[in-house]
Amino acid sequence: MEIEKLRRPSRVPVEVAGLQVNYCRNTLCSNFGVTPGERDRRNRSAAAQDPAYVMTGGAGALMPTATCGLCKESFPLKSNLAVAEEMARLSAYLAPIPELGCPDQECAHWGKAVSTHPKLYQGFGSTSAGSRRFRCKHCTKLFSIPTSSTPRQKRPDVNALVYRLLINKMPMRRICETAGIGPQTLYTKLEFIAERARAFAREQESQLLRGKVLPPLLLSTDRQDYLLNWGTSADRRNTRLHGVGTADNRSSYVFGMHLDYDSRLDPGDIELAALECDDYGILPPFRTFARLWLKRDWNSQQMIQRRRYGAAKKRGIAVAELDEEVQSPKWGGDDTKLPGRGMKVRDDYSVFGHLHLIAQLTAGSPHVALYMDLDPGLRAAAHTAFREKILEGRADTFQVRINKDMTIDTKSLAVAQAKQRMARFARERGIEQAAASRCFLEEHLSRRGFVERWQDRWVDHPSPDQGEPEKSLLHLTDRPDLTDARRADLHLWGSLHGIDRFFMVLRRRQSLLERPISSASSSGRTFMGNNPYRPWVVEAVLDLLRVSYNFHHVGKDKKTPAQRLGLADRGYALEDILAID
Question: Which of 16, 49, 263, 382 has its CA 20 to 30 Å from the CA of residue 444?
Fold first, then answer.
């Protein structure tokens, strides 16, 4: 079969709005932060004035990659336009709401508000709900300005009750019965509550973009999957969405929880636009719609096999021992489908956009330590998002490896053995047991010395807990000028418990996000009675739960995460969150 030759418009994706993410990810390499030049050649005799990269791939299904000529590390090229678009999508809730004016974008008065340009508009009575109506003097379009804080809400008295039930794991049908509303009213209120939650977050978190001073942060980043039910028996495939979140381990504040789904886009319009600009004939990093999953890419045999292979590995099937003829029937129907409405974002660009937004929100912190799950995509995104801070020595990144296959008994045994080792070490050194872990790490790191190759820097945590047994950390941004004491502290603080705790709250407080259970006869398919059918519902639930978790729920210290971070001076009732205008 002949492999289709895809076009490559340039050697490297062009910079967009000052954003360039294509450079060596090794923080000790001189090419870290240095973009491959347009005149790089495929050999070591590249021009001296250009960064020493070798560009490979791009033939057929091969993803174009760049290999650093100094440290020999390779990385796939990414679309800067896609990263910029994803950042804009995820940070849209932080943008100030424009004042109302003419709704017609083709009109000369578009963008000119009634409050600042009153002579451009004529009063035109009011709506049945009491909102003031205006007419544009240029295009004669009518529009209204709501006077109520709860527009289109016939039962605003139950909004707080619905919010409270949504974050306390009550199924949707039971919420309808308890609140005395119908299903369509519930979905309307869900959308309204999520919008109010985003508006409340905008009011509180906009000060972070203005450079609010924050304490040193210990951030943890991880990902979580969500399965949606199929809506028709004609296609019994689930839709799988990926969420990525980042939280502060000290305050428990969740800076972001984002889904790889864009509800604003129409799949039909995007497919037509992709065909018009010939996106299918261009290599993925150079496409106009590089951040989105197009149908032909998603349904390609290569991608189907890759998804089935990953699902088979999770189910414990020895896929390496299967020949090609029996692979598909043996693996079963583990494939998933794209959402019917909205567009699924490629998860690598979702991670890039997420961590670039986190970098902006945490700019006021003097130092950021970022602990990530063992995922190469997270490392690449983190090193591009925090590049300036890493070069200044004000950011450190770690990968955390945890044995997740242990039973309760083996976890308890591992923690008990670790405590015994630290108690014995404390007695031998004549120190307090509370200081044993730090002293042990400092001695170990001093004996080992600085390790040049970043892949060889794994260190076992001396004091794992029940939630993270057999924990190891890899210091990605280690450098020779760090003291052993500082290295010991950064390793000792390493944990994913901040974001994992929020993930646990999501599962326990919202029935829509429960873990799926597959039966032996379902061939990997799962149908969950409480799980949603519409992707935007998951997006809305994540937003309203994040806001209530940060600003409403208090811990044992009687403070919310926002109070501990210094972002709020009190806890907020759900009614306060909904009252935001």
Answer: 382
